[in-house]
Every structure is written in structure tokens, then in C-alpha cells.
Amino acid sequence: MADQPREGELPTFVRVLFPPVAIAPAGLLLTHCVRTLARRQPNLFDRLGEWRSARYLVAPSDLAFAFIVVPDGEKSIVHVVGKNSPGSVDVAITGPLLTLLGLLDGTLDGDALFFHRIISISGRTEAILALRNTIEDAELRPADFFGLHGIVARLADAGILNGLSVVRWLIAGRAHATGKL
Amino acid sequence: MELVCPAGTPAALRAAVSAGADAIYCGFRDETNARNFPGLNFSAAELAEGVRFAHAHGARVLVAINTFAQTGRVGQWRKAVDEAAGCGADAVIAADLAVLDHVAKNHTGLRLHLSVQAAAATPEAIGFYVETFGVRRVVLPRILSVQEIAALNRSIDVETEAFVFGGLCVMVEGRCHLSSYATGRSPNLSGVCSPPEMVSYDEDEEGTAARLAGFTIDRYAPGQPTGYPTLCKGRFTAGEKTSYLFEDPVSLNAGNLISSLKAAGVTALKIEGRQRGKRYVTEVVRAFRKAVDAVEAGSDAGEIDRILSGMSEGGRQTAGAYRKTWR
């Protein structure tokens, strides 16, 4: 029987619905999205300095797969990998998917999440710090990843961010109902 | 009173300005400032843009060039001053005599603030900096009580700025070499006392060990909140007793002393935290903006406490030397 989800995590059945093999092609799409972002905002990755070529493992604790990200501007790469076989990485970041997404859009304070053990990191501390400061300054919105502009971008941002808020609220409500808060 | 707020990135600068900062302090992306972390700080172009944004919103920008210039490399610190002036900065915050001298001689229109790193806490020391370099404001070291600040302000004729929130140094600023023994680097010379490339968090069955340059600074049980390992806030065993030998891991919160600091003649209140994210900056600046405005409007201490009640972050806090309860 699968483990019960911890606070902030998606329901357990999500892991079953999205096995690593089925989701692997998403790596190509995400690679395209990050490279497109780099073309439109070439200075975005400057803060990473020498850590542009680092391999970051981003492992949502509530999914069966993880991502390897090399944030090297227009040469960026995103791979979908199995959690148990990520290969060699410089940094590993683990936490509930919705929490990790909250870091990406600046909704959440990464320092507080790390110091309170809601997310965990291991590996090169300077690499994770460089990435954290880069993301902090980028002020990314969901539409940035899809190359959207104008009213379409505003609608997409509103829809996605509000959708994430609703899912977070539902998960918090479920945890409250089961006495986990 | 002026509210001086931190910014480690242009996004944090905009956040601080929008949250109500009167002035923002920031630094360049190198070892000329005392928050030299990977991915943090400003390029000259970013600073120029940040200054434009701040001025457009009625805020000022103070540039911290506050580490001590290294032998044979003073040019890098002079260049930082020249770039800050070229970007339209409102003041430079410095501690090193060569840097202060360069500003005084070459940028006479640029305000000069004496950094906390200079640790100037006597009328004589402050008088020297004022008379020699034309310093307009002194950032006070965090070793003075409110009564001592009041007495000091009566003896000097220059603005003073006091820290009110954030990380706290137990050592006298600018004179701490503790980290040099473990890492070979110090905040005074290289702008960082715990360089992240020497920090590791190692997990085992007993929990997490936070290490600096291989030295275990503290251990945390599974699930227990951790901290960033700095030697002065480490837990060590000596004489068969394990304790925080130098300083408990607490943060400064002098929010309920704002009116006392105002009465003591302090011109500006400073929030620490250029290494913190924009969400943190926004929340802290917004709360202190309300608190300062309430003090200026004559609100009572209870109202100030209510405004700042959400600022504990779940961590332990102290009024530090402002209330020397150990005396």
C-alpha cells in the first residue's frame, strides 16, 4: 500500500496516474519552454554565474518522477527521470509539487520553507543559493514559460495561479479534516 | 524617522520601495560589500535602473561598499564607488579609510554614511570620521543600549542610523575574524562569514548536521527547524557541557523600541536582510512602515506591538544590546 501523503502533498493516486515512463516526453516540452524563455530574457540566467551548467535534481515528493534541470540559457535541458535513478547531480531539491511551484512564481519564501524542513536540499549549497536568487529576481509568471503576451498572458496567469491556489486550499482542507494540521 | 530597507536583487528593491521604504541599501555583485553571496546583488546597469525606479517613487538608494579594501586591490573598491556615483546613488556606505578618502576627495556631492563595519561608537571616533571625511550619517554598531545611544547623540552633530530587525552579530562588527579560522574568509574582507561553498547539510539517521568547512556547527533532530551555519551561532561542547557558546541563534527585533530610539535622537531605522527573499522583505518593510508611521502619529506601545505581532517568523527574538538585561 502506498504511503499516505504528507502535509501539502498531492493525493497518492497522482503517483499512479503519472508513472515516469508516461511523463518522459514532457522533458522535451519543458526544455523547449525554458529555452524559449532564455531567448526572450537572455539576462535571466546571468545570476547563476558558473552554476548555469550545474545539474539540479528537482524531485516532487508527491510524484513518481523527478526533473533534472540544467539552466544554461538557450542550451538549457530538462529531463524527466525516475526518482531512484537520477544519476549524478550537483543539487537535489525535494518537496511537495505545489510548494516547489510556489517557489518558482515567488508565492512562497524559500528560506522559511527550507529552515522549517518543508523542502529539503542536498549538494552544493552555493549552486542552490545562486538558483534561488536567480528565481527570486526573475519574478516569473506562468505565461513566461509559454511565450504568451498581452491579455492572453494575463488570462493564463490568472487561470493557472488561481487554479493552484484552489488546489492548495483543497489540500489544506483535506489535511485539516484528517487532523494533520 | 527614515526607514532603510535591504535589497539583494532588483526585484527585492522594487518590493521594498512598494512596501514603503524611505531608502534602500544594496551592493555590487562582488566582494566590495558585506553580503557577497552567489546570485545576489547588483550589476552597475541594474543599480542604475534601481536608482531610477526608487527616485521615481520618492525613495533613495544607498550603496554599501563596506568591506575593507585588500592590499594591492584598492582599485576595485574605488571603481565600485565611481560606479555607484555614476548610477546616481544617493549615498555610499563605507568603513574602509581608503574608500572613505576616495569618496571625500572625488565625489564631494555624494553623501557618505559610515558603515556599521567601522564600529564607531564613541564621540571621538565619530568626530574623526566626520571631520576627516565629511561623513553625514553613522550606522551604529549593535553593542549600544538605548541610553548609550541617547548620550552619544547628545555628543555628536551627525545623523545616526540603528538596526531594528534581522540577523544579529554578537561580535563587534568589522572586527570579527571568527570565521577566518574555519574558512579562511571573513565578512570584513570577502563579504561573507559562512561562504555557501563551504556549507553543507548532511542527513543521517539521527537527523541533520549543519557543517561549515567540514566543522559541525549544529545538529538538528529529524523535522526540527534548521539554521544557516555560522560559527558565532553554533552549538559546541566545552567542559562536558553542550551549549551555544557565543550566542543563541536569535534575531534582533527592536520594533517596540522605535519610539525610544526616536527619543534618543536616531534619524534612521535599518532592517537587516539583503540575503533574504522579496516576500520576506515585503512583509517586514510593510510592518515596519506601519509601525514607524504609528510612532510618528503618537500611537501607544500596544498599537505598535499589535502591528509587529506577526514578525516573529516562529524564531526566537531579542532586543539585543538595546536592553542590556544582563547588567
Could you explain the architecture of this structure?
The complex is a heterodimer of chains A (181) and B (327). Chain A has 181 residues and is an alpha+beta fold. Chain A has a single domain (13-177), classed as Nonspecific Lipid-transfer Protein, Chain A (2-Layer Sandwich). In chain A, 47% of the residues lie in helices and 14% in strands. Chain A is built from eight helices and five strands. Chain A has helices at residues 13-17, 20-23, 26-40, 97-104, 110-115, 125-138, 142-146, 150-177; strands at residues 56-60, 65-70, 77-82, 91-95, 120-123. Chain A has a five-stranded mixed beta sheet. In chain A, a hairpin with a 6-residue loop joins strand 2 (65-70) and strand 3. The radius of gyration of chain A is 16 Å and the shape is globular. The two termini of chain A are 23 Å apart. Chain B has ten helices and 15 strands. Chains A and B meet through helix 5, strand 5 and helix 6 of A and helix 1, strand 8 and helix 9 of B. Chain A: It comes from Borborobacter arsenicus. Chain A: Residues 42-135 form the SCP2 domain.
In brief:
Chain A has about 180 residues and is α+β, with helices and mostly antiparallel strands.
Assembly annotation: heterodimer
Helicity level of chain A: 40-55%
Summarize the helix and strand pattern of chain B as letters: EHEHEHEHEHEHEHEEEEEEHEHHE
Under CATH at level 1, the class of the largest domain in chain B stands as: Alpha Beta
SSE arrangement:
The complex is a heterodimer of chains A (181) and B (327).
Chain A: H1 13-17, H2 20-23, H3 26-40, E1 56-60, E2 65-70, E3 77-82, E4 91-95, H4 97-104, H5 110-115, E5 120-123, H6 125-138, H7 142-146, H8 150-177
Parallel strand pairs in A: 1-4
Antiparallel strand pairs in A: 1-2, 2-3, 4-5
Chain B: E1 2-6, H1 10-19, E2 23-26, H2 44-56, E3 60-64, H3 74-86, E4 91-94, H4 97-106, E5 111-114, H5 123-133, E6 137-139, H6 146-155, E7 159-166, H7 178-183, E8 199-204, E9 207-212, E10 215-220, E11 235-238, E12 241-244, E13 251-253, H8 258-263, E14 268-271, H9 278-296, H10 301-307, E15 317-318
Parallel strand pairs in B: 1-2, 1-14, 2-3, 3-4, 4-5, 5-6, 6-7, 7-14, 13-15
Antiparallel strand pairs in B: 7-13, 8-9, 9-10, 11-12
Helix pairs in contact in B: 1-2, 1-9, 3-4, 9-10
